[in-house]
Amino acid sequence: MAKGLAEKAIGGQAVMEGVLMRRASGAQAIAVRRPDGTCSVKQQRAAPLASRYVVFRLPIVRGAVALVDTLTVGIDALLYSANESGGEEAELSKSAVGVAVFLGLALAVGLFMLLPTVLLRLFGLTDALPLVANLLEGVIRLSIFTIYIAAISYMPDMRRFFQYHGAEHKAINCYEAGHALTIENVRRASRFHTRCGTSFLLVVMLTSVVVFAFFGWPNVWVRIITRLLLLPLVAGLAYEVIKFSARGKGTWQRVLTAPGMVLQRATTREPDDSQIEVAITALRAICPDNNPGEVYRC
After folding, report:
1. Which of the residues 1, 86, 165, 227 could staple to 14 if both were Cys, CB 3.0 to 4.6 A apart?
2. Residue 2 pLDDT level (bands cut at 50, 70, 90)
């Protein structure tokens, strides 16, 4: 490996018909497959929020900051990719994306906060001890989350989205292993990665079960408000777990990463060569060993 893993660490995410790649330095690139088969590449530099203030880099705090940073960058990337992949007729505005995000958050509150309570009441379990009721609610929430992910993975559009997710992981694994970014090398790389956002979401779910269990069982609206207010803490704790698990391959690391790796079987799919090309395009655009201004285009 030409460089240390810490120096080469890349973050990324799948977008509509494309891939976003980011470096800790702030360099980022989005590559999107257009309807005519060509590839659109957008490069920019956006300093991470954690680089602005020392307090943003403190343990726990940095996890909440990273979540906000990821959501902000991700929404902009999805808007760009939707417009590039859909053509002029399907062009979206920021307001339209904002409405979609709001509806997504409303769906999340309904599925993962209200529905578990409804099910607890349906089975007459809300009269249990607060600690037991919270733990049962957490188990139901995890079950709903897992079923939801598994179900949407069979939708054609989501399956294609998850193929780009797999291409992103494969390209990053290939690069971090020190191999040349060719289609053949990337194709052989694993589609699973310990720093995956899916794993992070699952760890957030698991952490929330433990944290929320100690806050009693007030009425449903107080519980929703409490859980929303505690989300930065939960995200911060989950971030530290993911960061620790990515440091090595010891027993504890394998135990902590195992659930996320299993879930990635649903949220990633084996990509085709054209999708791998897009991931390589995005990654090569931010590789430090590229010549200045060089952009690999698929």
Report:
1. 165
2. very low
Question: What's the whole-model pTM score?
Answer: 0.85
Distance CA 29, CA 23 (A): 9
CA distances in angstroms from 222 to 216, 217, 225, 233, listed in the order given? 10, 9, 5, 17
Instruction: Report CA torsion sign: 242, 285, 91, 276.
Output: negative
- CA dist 298 and 285 (Å) reads 12
Burial class (CB in 10 A: 0-12, 13-18, 19+), 219: exposed
Q: Span 124-144, mean pLDDT? A: 85
Encoding tokens for residue 61? 């705090």
CA 170 to chain centre: 15
Quote the CA–CA distance of 198 and 172 in Å, as a whole number.
16
